[in-house]
Amino acid sequence: MKNVIELHHPLIEHKLSILREKTTSTKVFRELIKEISMFLCYEAMKDAVLDDVSIETPLEKMDTHRLNEDKYVFIPILRAGLGMVDGVLSVLPTAKVGHIGMYRDEVSFKPVNYFFKVPDDIEHREVIILDPMLATGGSCIDAIDLLKEKGVEKIKFLCIISAPEGLQKVYEKHPDVTIYTACIDKKLNQNNYIVPGLGDAGDRIFGTK
Ligand code: PRP
Ligand code: URA
Asked: What is the pLDDT of residues 197-206, one digit of tens each?
């Protein structure tokens, strides 16, 4: 799919193998989510447009380029997306942060939206949605729908693990949104969990099960 960028790097594969392991502690799990999120953000900023600036080094004046960090908004999908915020903010420390609360109904697997708080002028900003898991794609599609309804035009989606079925659905509905993923896994199981996956990301980040 043209709109999906998968990170191919030995460091990512190494970190993912520890992240997926069922005996990995909550502490290490959180650290790895943060680290992989930094790499995803680095990749997602590859096409960023820089402003011209003139500066002075201790030796001479020079013309160079800077990013207007302020125009970016990170939007974690609660809960699990919160685990990615520290990592992306360490790459873009002055970006804004909005929040979308969504959980997947355990019977219908459909996302339920319970919270939405984003900067007032969101339509003038570039949005980067954060959620470690893209399974059926329902949460991703609904989050993008909500932001487009608010007039947002530039949206990217960062996730740690994704399923081919969900990526296909997102592409059909929102082909303009680029998805950055550390790994595209094999498939969804009968409970719409990603396999091999890593289990329930929210529970593993917050130690709730
Ligand atoms: C998980 C995950 C995504 C969603 C992915 O959230 O963090 O938001 O499921 O599934 P989908 O692609 O099929 O929509 P969950 O419902 O477990 O909520 P939580 O983050 O509060 O644990
Ligand atoms: N949500 C998760 O946390 N894990 C999955 O595998 C699917 C949805």
From this structure: 999 999 999 9
